[in-house]
Amino acid sequence: MRWIRFTDTSGTHYGLVEDDRVNRVEGSPFDGYTRTGEWTSLESVQLEVPVMPRTFYCAGLNYAEHAIEAARKRGQEPQLPKQADIGYRANNALVPHGHDVLIPPDARTIHYEGELVVVIGKKARHLTPERALDCVLGYTIGNDVSERNWQKSDRTFWRAKNADTFKPMGPWIDTDFDPSAARTCVRVNGKTTTEFATAAMIFDIPTFLCAMTKYLTLYPGDVVWMGTDGQSPDLRAGDVVEIEITGLGKLRNTFVRG
After folding, report:
1. According to CATH, what is the number of the domain 49-257?
2. How many CB atoms neighbour CB 86 within 10 A?
3. Binning pLDDT at 50, 70 and 90, where does residue 71 land?
4. Which of 10, 144, 200, 213 gets the highest tally of CB atoms within 10 A of its CB?
5. Domains 1-48 and 49-257 share a fold
6. Quick check: pTM over 0.90?
7. CA pair distance 254, 258, nearest whole angstrom
8. What class has domain 1-48?
9. Domains in the chain: boundaries
10. 256 with 100: CB under 8 angstroms?
């Protein structure tokens, strides 16, 4: 099943995507739903982010090449992380597939980060590796946009990672997707600039969920962004960034000067 949130003339709703059509539902994938029998074309609706999370989590440095390059840029000896560390992002930064990413006037070095996003469907605490994925509703795609100069100069990531529009996510939640054989491909203006095996994480999804729920409760609608690999070119106004995860879909956004 593929779930979207969309807006039409009657408001914002959840819907199920089948081929190129959307069946509007009453309710949500988190609280229960009924099909309305109302169908519309997918291209005619305005997509929203597929879920507005209660808590927005993100994995830190979870792919080898990305972790090594980050250490080198800091002038440090490259070392892979020794534990699954989690961070947070801000909901104000979320925008859907097709929405513009606004480059602030004083931003200088803007990069993308193509990420697999885990969407939590059930309340969970003290998960075990064997049962960790039982709390997962499905998956979507995220672009963790960063301003690298601010990331270096500020004491926190408050603007480098969380400026308005810096977190595109979508286009839908796929409940049947299997990341094990998928590949993540990022294109800028149609040219492939990054490609890697989606599942080639330093710490896999169950490891993160188990580590997190040792100390905190996950709730339906929470999202966990799983990190990225490779490096991004410096993005400019007018660039179109498309992140494709095979079998899951494509997230596309245009970068414009704010």
Report:
1. 3.90.850.10
2. 17
3. low
4. 144
5. no
6. yes
7. 12
8. mainly beta
9. 1-48, 49-257
10. yes
